[in-house]
Design a protein that fits this description.
Order of helices and strands: HHHEEEEEEEEHE
Shape: globular
Distance between the termini: 50 Å
Helix content: 10-25%
Radius of gyration: 17 Å
Number of strands: 9
Number of helices: 4
Length: 209
C-alpha cells in the first residue's frame, strides 16, 4: 500500500513515495530524521505515543552532570512555554498553528504529562509524536519516560529503575542502553521547534479547585 505525502498534514518529516513499512526504520533513525528534516505540513507521517504507569522514578541518568543539566533545561523551556501546566492551573491544552499538525498537552496524573502532535489516518488518531514526561517542580527537572510511534510502530519507555526498554511489535522487550539521554535530548529539540511554530491555544481545560 502506498500513501502520497500530501495526504497527511504533518510538519516533521518529508519522505517521497510510499510509507516505510513497520519495522524497517528504527526509532533512533526516525529521531535523526526528525531533527534534520523539519518541514511544513503536507508530508507523510511518523507517530509516537506513550503510556506506562510510573509514579516516582529512580532516574539513573540524572546522576550524571549532563543528564541533570538537560532535565533542568527541559523544565525551564517547558515552564516558559506552558506555565499554567507547570503550576497546575490548566490540565489540558489543545493548540494549533497554520500549516502544522495540532498539538495537545495534558496532565495525566500527579506530575506526569503528555505532549503530542496528532493526525488522522483511515479514521484512526495517530500521534506524531507523543511523549510522556515526569515533572519535578521542587528540583525543576523534566524527564522523558515514554516514546511511541505509530508508523513505523515503536514503543520505548523508561522503567521505574531508570532503565530504558524497547518493545517490539510482537511484544518482545529488550534493554536499550542510553535511551534516557536520547529521549531527553530529542524532547528538548522538539520543544524548541514547537516554540518556533507559533502555536496558539484553541481549547483549555482549567483545573477545578
Amino acid at each position: 500500500m502506498t500513501l502520497k505525502a500530501t495526504r497527511l498534514k504533518r510538519p516533521i518529516l518529508e519522505r517521497p513515495g510510499a510509507l516505510i513499512s513497520a519495522g524497517t526504520l528504527t526509532a533512533r533513525i526516525a529521531r535523526k530524521r526528525y531533527r534534520s528534516s523539519l518541514r511544513p505540513a503536507g508530508n507523510a507521517g511518523y507517530t509516537l505515543t506513550g503510556g506506562r504507569d510510573a509514579g516516582t522514578l529512580n532516574i539513573n541518568y540524572c546522576k550524571c552532570t549532563k543528564g541533570a543539566i538537560m532535565e533542568k533545561k527541559l523544565f525551564a523551556k517547558f515552564e516558559k512555554m506552558y506555565p499554567d501546566i507547570i503550576n497546575h492551573k490548566t490540565d489540558y491544552l489543545k493548540l494549533e498553528s497554520t500549516g502544522f499538525e495540532p498539538l495537545s498537552i495534558e496532565r495525566l496524573y500527579g506530575n506526569r504529562i503528555s505532549v503530542m502532535h496528532t493526525y488522522e489516518m483511515n479514521g484512526d488518531l495517530c500521534y506524531d509524536p507523543m511523549m510522556e514526561f515526569i515533572l519535578n517542580p521542587e528540583e525543576k527537572t523534566m524527564t522523558a519516560v515514554c516514546f511511541e510511534m505509530s508508523i513505523p510502530p515503536v514503543y520505548e519507555y523508561i522503567d521505574d529503575s531508570g532503565t530504558g526498554k524497547m518493545v517490539s511489535c510482537k511484544g518482545e522487550e529488550r534493554t536499550a542502553p542510553g535511551l534516557q539521554e536520547e529521549l531527553n535530548d530529542f524532547a528538548y529539540e522538539w520543544l524548541k521547534h514547537i516554540a518556533e511554530q507559533e502555536y496558539e491555544p484553541i481549547t483549555t481545560h482549567y483545573r477545578e479547585e
